[in-house]
Specification:
Layout lengths: L2 H6 L20 E6 L7 E3 L5 H6 L1 E5 L7 E6 L11 E12 L1
Parallel strand pairs: 1-5
Antiparallel strand pairs: 1-2, 3-4, 4-5
């Protein structure tokens, strides 16, 4: 694991690596990002509709195949999802785009 990958572990996507508290907040809802350049991060999906979660996310990142591009994460049909705060689902890496 390189230095960039180590900085990404244990935090919420979009928070700076030097944020004093980059971790999840107990009243927010998150999707765990699985695989790809953002593996191990949590994506804040508080307020997202189920259809929006189903559509996945294209997340800007400097650590994808194309720096400054987007890492694509999608849900898997039929995978269980919980309601309320905490980690409610997983989104899986499906590719990168410039």
């Amino acid at each position: 694991m390189n230095r960039d990958e180590q900085l990404l572990r244990g935090r919420v996507y979009g928070h700076d690596h030097d944020d004093p508290d980059p971790g999840p907040l107990p009243w927010q809802t998150y999707a765990a990002l699985v695989g790809g350049p953002l593996d191990g991060l949590l994506l804040d999906i508080t307020g997202w509709l189920p259809e929006e979660v189903d559509d996945g996310a294209a997340l800007p990142t400097e650590v994808s195949r194309w720096p400054g591009g987007r890492a694509l994460y999608d849900s898997r049909p039929g995978e269980p999802r919980t309601a309320g705060p905490g980690v409610s689902c997983r989104l899986y890496h499906s590719g990168d785009t410039p």
